[in-house]
Amino acid sequence: MYVFNSRRLAGVALLTLSLGLSSAMAQELKPFADTSRLVSIGGSITEIIFALGEEGKLVARDQTALYPEAVMKLPDVGYMRQLAPEGVLSVSPSALLVIEGSGPPEALEVLSHAGVEYQTVPESYSAAGVVEKIRAVGQALGVADKAEALALETEQQFADLAARTDTVTEPKRVLFILSAEGGKIQASGTGTAADGIIALAGGVNAIDEYAGYKALTEEAIIDAAPDVILMMDRGGDHGASDADLKANPAIALTPAGQNDAFYRIEGAYLLGFGPRTAAAAGEVADLLYGAN
């Protein structure tokens, strides 16, 4: 439930301080020599470029770039973690902006030797991380002023969200399920985008014994005792239905199973950690605690 308490202003102040510290410590990117034929790797990077009004520089994207709709008109050079140099080079890029974790490293090395200037934008699943990405993209594209305006707007959105979630006195335990194929539950531990969005929404990750995504035993699901199960909305017949989840005997014994608390949100929006993340976390908070 939401109630006003004395932690509210402290929470907002702490968020503002953390964002300011992140800005000061942010990895400095330098302006590309030529951005006339830019390739962006990472859905959040591409979304930021559109939000800055610099989409005219883009000649290609990777498979994780799904928003805004106009991005789908760009050529797709492959998945961010499995890039093939020939695919990227086929669009004759002048510069390559990649999110941390893209690769493989050998592919990026080949591209560098081929004369393609590339820079890496740091990734962090937090409010400060989103703001840092915006500023980093602005630096690389030579539009720091535009990026600063977007960064400040985004900071305010996160501050407003923090003011809201800081009034939560009984945080909901949230289990994020990545996959339930064959009845095997693959769920998020710590250090993931799912873990980050749960925290921003004022929830608690029901799984904190490991990092990343792993399969859960029935005993682990029962012990986690989630109040809510959160998933990506894969559309159509993809993904587990509510009936499928309730058919799992372990899930059926949890508070989430007993209360049919199964929620789905489109994946790129939920886990993208781009300019829309404060809004996405706000929607999760609505699901957990009711609309503000």
Automatic annotation (TrEMBL):
Q: Gene3D superfamilies annotated for this entry?
A: Nitrogenase molybdenum iron protein domain
- Signal peptide (residue range): 1-26
Q: Where is the Fe/B12 periplasmic-binding domain?
A: 37-292
Q: Does the keyword rRNA-binding apply?
A: no
Key words of the record: Signal
Signal listed as a keyword: yes
Q: Where are the transmembrane segments?
A: none
Q: Which PANTHER family match?
A: HEMIN-BINDING PERIPLASMIC PROTEIN HMUT, VITAMIN B12-BINDING PROTEIN
Q: What name does UniProt use for this protein?
A: Hemin ABC transporter substrate-binding protein
Gene source species: Devosia psychrophila
